[in-house]
Amino acid sequence: MNEQRRAIIKNSHVIDATSQEPRELTVVVEGSQIVDLLPPGSPAPAGDAREIDLDGGWLTPGLWDVHTHIGRGIPDPGWRDESIAERTTRAGHDCMNALALGITGMRVVGEREYVDVAWKRAFDSGQFIGPSLFTCGWFLTTTAGHFLRSGTAKELDGPTEYRRAIRENIKNGVDFIKLNLSGGIMGPPWDGMQRTFPTPDEIDAAFEICHQRDYKVVAHAGGTDAIKTAISHGAWTLEHGYVLDDEAVAMMAHAGTYYVPTLGLSHLNRGPAYAESEVERAWAESHPAPPDYAARAVVAAEAHAAGFKKALDAGVPIANGSDLALPDGGLLELGQLVRRGMSEWQAIVAATKTSAEVCLAGDQRGTVEVGKAADLLALGSNPLDDIENVRDVQLVMKDGDVVVRR
Hints:
The chain is α/β, with parallel strands linked by helices and 406 residues long. It is built from 11 helices and 16 strands. It folds into 2 domains: 3-61 and 366-405, Roll (Urease, subunit C, domain 1); 63-358, Metal-dependent hydrolases (TIM Barrel). It is 34% helix and 22% strand. A 7-stranded mixed sheet has the order 3-2-1-4-14-15-16. A 4-stranded parallel sheet has the order 10-11-12-13. α3 runs parallel beside α4 and α10 packs across α11 (344-358).
């Protein structure tokens, strides 16, 4: 074992994402893994190690954002004219900036030209230190589908085109398949959330090839018809779910479908007047939504929040995904989860343990346990008192490497 990569993290209140009560523990890291959790006063393990004293701070698993588009969304109106090289460079830089805020894992649910796969490989190989990335490649929709202005959508018509596009995504190394079933909040007037875009034969073909090849489906679904279609076809995660009725919630709970609500889309994009914290107000001012988008968000927000609360009360597994621009979209979404009904503890679990499970990485990441990866976030104040304390970053560790130390 390389002793230079051994660390002893002491004097911390550990929120491990498995039990609600924080524990005073010393965390021992060797290489990329947590190898021991010791009670206070235990003898230090033999051998040379870096000692990190958190001085009574709070230690959580690294946070996750499982609904991102790493190449999107900077406040510069000229960003859509970027070359693919410029987009790729900016996407990686933004990922590393997110890591510095404590976002140690992300699922990218639509990106052009496999920019997400390229950065996943770069981070996994150790060329750069960045978040663990889980990828979808192209966002697959229909002609006159959703998210067309993003540059990340591939328009398809007919079962054959769906099969080919899914196989191409698989060939290029994606982890999941992102299918667009409906419209959403943003887009032209015909791009409404209650409209289901693919025809039944296209939906059947898409899910058939994903199931045949054992690839989980990430389903964008806003309206009730698309939501129920996604669940009944075996979607792994339901994204957005703007209009959840009782039947849809019951279907999710029964099927064990993970829900990624992206509450920030409908709430933060309404504009600064609707902000519920100074952080949200600053974000809304620096990321102004087009007037038509803001108006649609105002209309959608109440039903979105009500459906989320139904899913929460029904025990649907909920993960943290923002669909907001990097680097801090995942932190903004955490605040929304709490404001719409979660306790701080539930929100932390959603953004760590459950989000890692969504990415099929729950056996390796997402909790502070022996044998798990040393993806850790140390805070100077208690996030169980106020979820905004996740911004009080004192330490970020990724696979045993210290990325931030204050």
